[in-house]
């Protein structure tokens, strides 16, 4: 019962945040609402006993991806008013298409088509059941191949991003920290012994 | 007594759970806030001593100065009665939410930290992940504050510190991954229990590089000196909270110190065995106060907080590009290498003792070097 | 352990790609050619390993993630070979445009890896991951010439539409997973064949999305819009890479998904493929006539060829699949040569991609005019060049599958298509050159294009060997 209440509270927040993401004018607000939506969905995952995924969602999407996203959005001067030009004009068509697609989807892929009655309701796991451990056990055995390929994809993404954005500028002077660290006193200062000079200025002028 | 238990049992179960959890939370947050207040006093006193000053010593209670123990209370009262100035053009809602976004995660992370063998608010399996998640969302307070202030100084400060926090989070995350590999669990209580066996059983020696990386990253993560470019006074006044005043500013202040204590607590739990006694396994452990207990944890936290203050009084501020270089080009490679080393050690236990020995040797050599160099002559200084 | 032995070529390629990446990062600019040579060597050894490990019978490895079989091995060997030629063609072109960077070859190697993973996939998950690996590399390669606005635009279009297509594919995969409860292609086939599924609406619904996603990647009409812009905008060196080997991988993807996994739904996908095929042949051949840019013309010709390629698959017989496989290989070789000729005629800062640039090629270089003519005739399907045999074998299977009308339609469009190929031949032999400068391309490039042309000619004279290889490969999978 309390689970149901919690679910509906978070689901309502999530839907609300999701709607706000695409309707608010300010791009930064939109990104922050997306964060809220991620958070609520993480809570819903927790209800489904997927605590690893829930926390990783917060860690990766909220903690890293959206932060970088906010960076970009804040530094760009996105003129949403101009982007939204013609929004009203296309709205009827868009709505019609959306409603039709939703209708078709519901017609074709309702729950009964998957034979949901054949699947029993999942049994709640014991308190010491570790979702993380279970996930690790299949990830590194059964799905090893896919896991490694996914890793290669990430590597390629890094290579591609760097090769597309990095410009080596030869005109900029940069420091070489290792040389700074390795510097010794003898490199900079030379102590010379010399005979003392006569105090010229004093004797001539004043 | 019986009356109270009957009353308690008469409450509905859900309410009982909520009440029990709330009580536990209050038991952690109340002392924590007090500690935060007094860390500010400790900072001023300790740095004062280091700089051969006295520090605050006037405000006390009931007409007694009491070494300035009333100072934090006086500060808090002063800030409470100050006006919260909303800059024109600031985004009102976000401007006020930002301090809470900053403080919330710093407190929320305490939910999974065990204070002794029995006491923990929520004993969850993925505790370490939860901590990582919570520390990673603290950055929102900084970004949102900088943006909502509608000020270039605040925005620049926010960008700087957010980039810094995000960068150091990677090294920190890897350090934590190494700890969880060594302990074989994500549950923080299990991590502490994996360090049983006295001071040599703790993870600081075998994971010495990770320990250093973790704590230094923690200093950078909390934007404290010598990594406090976010508020580098000479450059951008006070960084992301330049436009805050009154209680809103105080909340940022609280968040910064709460984060410091959190990092100190994590370092104590993950690398110095939490509530475990250093004399565990010896005869001394049976003496009063020398056995395991929460006081050891508090002592270790105090040690790390002192280090924070010591750093601030000692080191000059890093330049921004140097901070980034340290994070990306030094710490991340070091953690990656040690990840592999510890991976091998986990699969091949004899190597573990070697790692412990290596850690001890490194510490001993460093100490020797410091003492030896100090005894011979102060180097690098050109005598007049 | 046998699992790892079976995928030795992929492992080697991955290792070497990382090695090339690191070596390149530490090499000074003057030694960039080392990267290039390492990449070529990697491809040769990968191809060799694939051939050496040719399996007697299909071997499913890694808990059903991948399969090593005849079709996969043959295609993988050809992918490595064609990538080898593509790299050779691109060297001078890239150097003249200041984009001769190690990343091009690193990304190219990773793209080859992606193709190999797609080709040997035995699970919808692996197919999707391989496809993403390939696509990501290709997006970056298109965008690599950063100073060119055309290339950036092409990369953007490619990326956005590619992401859309991947979304479609994923949606289809999720439907199939929902309907069958597995992503393993073998198990999917078993579930579909078992007849346990009373209501296959979900499967057909997923199939629609899968076919749409596949058609997007193949470039079949009406999901072809990205193709001309990308082929035109990308640097020619990249276009020839995109236009050749990935088509074989796309063919393999179609085979894995539709034949290995969903053969039970053949009646459903056959109808969809017929529509895609006819539209592709019609739109590709007709619009190509209006093009004045050779790269765009080849792009539309690709669309038309994809239509033909699909014909073999939709015939639904083993021989039909073999014919399609033959077509995919042959098309990759021809397309490689066609774009290779553009690269050959291009010089620093000048793209020989307009039809006028080929005017009077015979006077400038009779040999290369002849080679180009071989490519064009072959693409048009003129006997005895290999393109003819490809078309013929596909059409034969369509007729054998009792779809004579479809074969007639295909022949009509292919005759329409012959017009624009022959127009280029006419320009080369009967018009005066606008620019009579001699060909300055390097010796290795000239040799490679010549070999490519002779291969098309030779395969045309003796098509039996390759065709038999395709039939045998399919029989062993």
What does this structure look like?
The complex is a heterotrimer of chains A (206), B (384) and C (477). Chain A has 206 residues and is mainly α. Chain A is built from ten helices and no strands. Chain A has helices spanning 2-23, 27-47, 51-75, 80-83, 87-108, 131-139, 144-165, 177-182, 185-188, 200-204. Chain A is elongated, with a radius of gyration of 31 Å. Chain B is mainly α. Helices cover 66% and strands 0% of the residues of chain B. Chain B has helices at 2-10, 13-50, 71-80, 92-108, 127-137, 139-148, 152-183, 188-193, 208-221, 233-236, 246-271, 294-314, 320-347, 350-376. In chain B, helix 7 (152-183) packs parallel to helix 13 (320-347), helix 9 packs antiparallel against helix 11 (246-271) and helix 11 crosses helix 12. The model of chain B is unreliable at 378-384 (pLDDT under 50). Chain C has 477 residues and is mainly α. Chain C is globular. The chains are: A mainly alpha (206), B mainly alpha (384), C mainly alpha (477).
Percent helix among the residues of chain B? Answer: 55-70%
Structural class by sheet pairing and helices of chain B: mainly alpha
Question: Could you give the order of strands across the largest sheet of chain C?
Answer: 1-2
Largest sheet data of chain C: 2 strands, antiparallel
Assembly classification: heterotrimer
Q: What is the molecular shape of chain B?
A: globular
Unreliable segments of chain B (pLDDT under 50, ≥5 consecutive)? Answer: 378-384
Largest interface in this structure: A-C, 23 and 37 residues
Number of domains of chain C: 1
| Shape verdict of chain C | globular
User: What's the total helix number of chain B?
Assistant: 14
Q: What is the share of helical residues of chain C?
A: over 70%
**Total strand segments of chain B:** 0
Give start-end ranges of low-pLDDT stretches of chain C.
Answer: none
